[in-house]
Amino acid sequence: MKILYLPSELLLQVPKYLHNIEDFTSLSSSCRALRNVCSDTSPNTILRLAAASSCILFRPDPHFLVAATVRQVSDWALLSNENTEILRQAMQGGIYMLLNLCVDKAGLTMDDIRRLHASRFSLINPVSDMIDRCADPQWISTPDFWNGGVSNPATVSLEPARTLFQIVIYGELFASTMKAFLEPSLSLPHFDQEFRMDFIKYCIPDSMCQSYTGVTVLKVGPYAGINNELMPQQVGLDYLLTCRTWTEAWEKVRLEIGPNFDDVPRQIMWERAVQTQGLEGLEMLRPRGLERWRPRLEVIRKNIENLPVESRPKECRYGSSGRYYCWDSPDMAAEITVTLAPYWGER
Predict the structure, then answer these.
(1) Distance between CA atoms of 19 and 15, rounded to whole angstroms?
(2) Dihedral of the alpha carbons of 142, 143, 148, 150, in degrees to the nearest 10
C-alpha cells in the first residue's frame, strides 16, 4: 500500500516515528500531501526530532537547543513549586538533563528553527568572535600580549560558542525573574539566587566549584564521577564577564539610553537587566542593532528609576567572613564569583 493511501489520522502520526529532523525535512519536501501533513506536526515532535540531530545541526550541543527552548521551561517551572523542583533536579543533573526536560516540556516550529539558524550568522558567530578576541587564541595572539598589548593579560581557556550560549541560557532562563524584580508591584513568581546558582554550579561545571560556608555543591550530575576532572568553565566565564572588552561593549549600549545611576543597587540592576535578555538581546551588540531595543530598554530604565528603596537589589553574602556576595536579583557575574570562591582561596 502506498503511504498516501493511508487515512489522514494515520498520516499525521508518521512524523512521530521519524529518526531526526533531516528525515522530517525530507518527508516534508517529497510531495504536497506529505508537506501538508508535516505542517500539522506538533512543536514538541519537531523539537524531539531536532534533539536527535543536535550534535550535527544544532551545535554547540546541547547548548543551542537549550537556549532555544529553556524560556518555555522557565515559564512552566514558575507555575508551581513542584515544577520548580523538577527544573532544579534537571539542572543538578547537568546540561544534558536540562535538555531532556526542555524536550519533554517545550517545542519548536520549523519557523523557529529557520530563525535560529539565521541568527547564527547575524548574532551568534559575530558575538562568538568578539568573545574569541576577549579570551582565546585571537586574544593571546595579540602582539606584545604580556608586555602591554592587552589591558589584563592572563592565561584563560574557554570555548567561545559554548561560553556565549551559557550566557544566553542564563538570560533565557531568568528573564522572567528579572522582570519580577523590575516590576515588584505585580508580585510575579521568580527564582531566588540559590536556584540561579544551581544552574551555574551544575550546568557550567568547574573543578574549582566546591562546597564551602554557605554554598553546597552536591556530588551529583557532573560532579558524581570519582576523581572527575572538569574543564574550568566557570573560571573562563568569570574572566569574560568582567573583562574590559565585554563590559565596555555593554556600557556603550546602556549609555545610549541614559547615564549611570548614582547608587550601586540600581546601577547593578541596570547593568544586569540589559544583559539578561537572552539570545535576541545579543542584537544590541551588533551595528545598528540597538534601535529595535531602545523602547524596551527605556521602559526597563524607567522601572529602575522608580524602584522604591525596599525593592532594590539586596546583597546575599557567603563564606566564613561574608567576603563573597551576589544580589537577590539576577547577576550572573556575581553569582559565578560566589560559586568560584574556593578558586580565590575560600574553604
Answers:
(1) 9
(2) -10
Q: Using alpha carbons only, how large is the chain's radius of gyration in Å?
A: 22
Beta strands in the chain (DSSP E): 315-318, 324-327
**Beta 324-327 vs 315-318: how paired, if at all?**
antiparallel
CA-based nearest residue to 47, from 124, 88, 93, 99: 99
β-bridge partners, 325: 317
| Structure confidence by residue, pLDDT tens digits, 124-166 | 999 999 998 877 555 555 565 445 555 555 556 688 999 999 9
| Dihedral-angle region of residue 320 (phi above 0 means left; psi in -120 to 50 means alpha; beta otherwise) | alpha
Q: Which residues pair with 215 in a beta bridge?
A: 212
Q: What is the pLDDT of residues 262-303, one digit of tens each?
A: 999 999 999 999 999 999 999 999 999 999 999 999 999 999
| pLDDT 10s digits, 73-113 | 999 999 999 999 999 999 999 999 999 999 999 999 999 99
Identify the three-state secondary structure at position 125: helix
**pTM, two decimal places:** 0.92
